Amino acid sequence: MAIPSDLSYLHTPANKPYNYTTVAQAARKNAQLRPNQEILVLRELDGSRSSLTNASLYQQAGHLARYLVKQGIKKGETVALLGPNTLEMAIATLGIIKAGAVVFTIVLNMKKEDVMAQLQIVNAKLILVDCGKNDSFLHSFKSILDNCGALTADPSTEHDIKVLFLRETDLYNLPVLNQNMLSQNIAEAELPHIYPEDNVIILSTSGSTGIPKMVCHSNFDRANIAKCSSENYQRIIFNDRLFFWALGSIVNNIMRSKTRVFLETSVTLNSPNIDFTWRILKEERCSDALLPAPEIRKLLELSKSVTMDGIRLKHIFTGGQIIGKYCTGALGQLCQKFVVLYGATECQGICLKTISDCHELLQAGDVGEPVAGVEIRVVDNQDNPIKRGLTGKIQVRSPLAMTGYVSNPEKTKEVFTEEQWYRTGDIGKVSLDGNLIIQGREAEIIDRDAKRIYPSMLEAVLKDMEAIKEVCVVPVPDKKLYEEVCVCFVPFGKLTPEDVKQFFKENYFKAKTFGGLNEIPPYFLKFETFPKLGSGKLDKKAIRQQATSTLELTMEYDN
After folding, report:
1. pLDDT tens per residue, the chain (559 residues)?
2. Which candidate among 168, 208, 260, 308 keeps its CA 20 to 30 Å from the CA of 346?
3. Count of CB atoms within 10 A of residue 498's CB?
4. Strand pairing class (49-53; 102-105)
5. Sheet holding 404-405, edge to edge
6. pTM over the 0.70 mark
7. Rounded Cα–Cα distance for residues 435 and 267 (Å)
8. 43 in Cβ contact with 92 (< 8 Å)
9. Closest Cα to residue 320, out of 388, 260, 242, 263?
10. Domains located in the chain, CATH noted
11. Could you give the residue ranges of the DSSP H alpha helices within 176-319?
12. C-alpha distance from residue 429 to each of 101, 380, 384, 395, 466 (Å)
């Protein structure tokens, strides 16, 4: 029997053996055991529907894999993907993996200079491009394609990257992968043997603290992604996350053999009509849905006549930000269980908290207990564990941690301790009842007259205000205090800074999860929209600069 400790340490033992397999082997098993199961379903705004079965995905990916081998792609080399969420991109992902190469999907909406830098770092040998239906993304990709040095006529420059299109396009006179190309002399192409320890995918971090870092994971890592539920039922999950994010990768669906429904990317990037999303959830008979907090809020604001129709999801999963009690209003109205996820691209799943009682109050930042096999500790500045209930730096040790940042061993070494604890960069504490409470990012803490203010905890209070669409707390310069607190918000309708300030006054000190501030912030600013990063997350640096300019503050400080 384990001796309980008063130190900030959590661990959930692995409850079953790990899968010693590869992504390609899992896809083959799916094709053999469940050939007609739809593994991917694409829904478009016009209501049209297209899908891939396990058998068709595996077969078409096999053709592409042999073609890549015939073109000289070797095991362990990187092949890049550029495109929206489409069935063609899904086939290409598995095709690259079956060829023994490492798949790297480029983040949409990134600056071309950053994309070119990433392609150089990963040493991509080839880019497979899908400009979407009717070339809908061609304009967005043109600057990248014009600068990637595609080998068209003169293959003399060693830094050029070959480009192949996954569907016809009118603008570029470049090869298109069609059935004729894939059927030519590929039968004799021998696919390499792949092992669980071999690298399989490069994932991008969110880039919220700078240019996204590129994280490399092995087949073993991806084969053992933690299950979010042990319940046994046929899973049809709505997951609209983009393929280049860890939670959006189709590898997750292959390894879990669960049907995934997603929307065309142009709908996703332009903030989907929430009525349309709910309609798709019903038409596809989804059992589960992975939804960001803003979409849950929109669903809750739909007319009761739309959502009170007898349809209830088994689970709604969410994560990526501190979740407040407002979102848990989905319990009963939209779902049977509400699951808060906490993870990192570098370590995959870390914690989850399942709520099934609509009367249970969710403390802001509570992400529950570690997933199986994961250890968590909270430490001081010297990496020493601190007592439960105290706030410190969150570190994680996981058997599924990344193999490293691509071409950046120094950064890899920097984020791991000698004992292989990963420094998440998050601040939080272990509660007395054994849950992890996230309080914010270390890099985003506001330094107000030597007091540490946690923006995420202040934001969590205001996210319970129904009329607020988005909220972001940022530091602005102050000549005496060094930094002062500014609450920036985007309203749903007519909402004034005074309204928000009054709500804060009435609710902040009731929250019992103070963000380090014991008074009302001096600044409340209304925004029409917030600037976003290529990842879709808020560009907090730009928001801070805009707030500083609007308030006519300067960066000059008194001594």
Report:
1. 355 689 999 999 988 899 999 999 999 999 999 999 999 999 998 889 999 999 999 999 999 999 999 989 999 999 999 999 999 999 999 999 999 999 999 988 788 888 888 999 999 999 999 999 888 888 888 888 877 654 443 444 444 688 899 988 877 677 787 766 666 656 678 999 999 999 999 998 876 656 678 999 999 999 998 666 667 778 999 999 999 999 999 999 999 999 999 998 877 776 668 889 999 999 999 999 999 888 898 888 886 666 666 678 999 999 988 887 888 889 988 999 999 999 999 999 999 999 998 888 888 899 999 999 999 999 999 999 999 999 999 999 999 999 999 999 999 999 999 999 999 999 999 999 999 999 999 989 998 888 889 998 899 888 888 889 889 999 999 988 889 999 999 998 889 999 999 999 888 876 655 667 778 899 999 999 999 876 667 889 999 999 999 999 975 544 3
2. 260
3. 9
4. unpaired
5. 162-165, 124-129, 78-82, 102-105, 199-204, 214-218, 404-405
6. yes
7. 37
8. no
9. 242
10. 23-217 (3.40.50.12780), 319-441 (2.30.38.10), 445-550 (3.30.300.30)
11. 179-183, 219-223, 250-256, 265-269, 274-283, 293-301, 304-307
12. 40, 11, 14, 11, 28
- Token couple for 174: 């470049």
Query: In which residue are the tokens 């604001």 written?
Result: 301
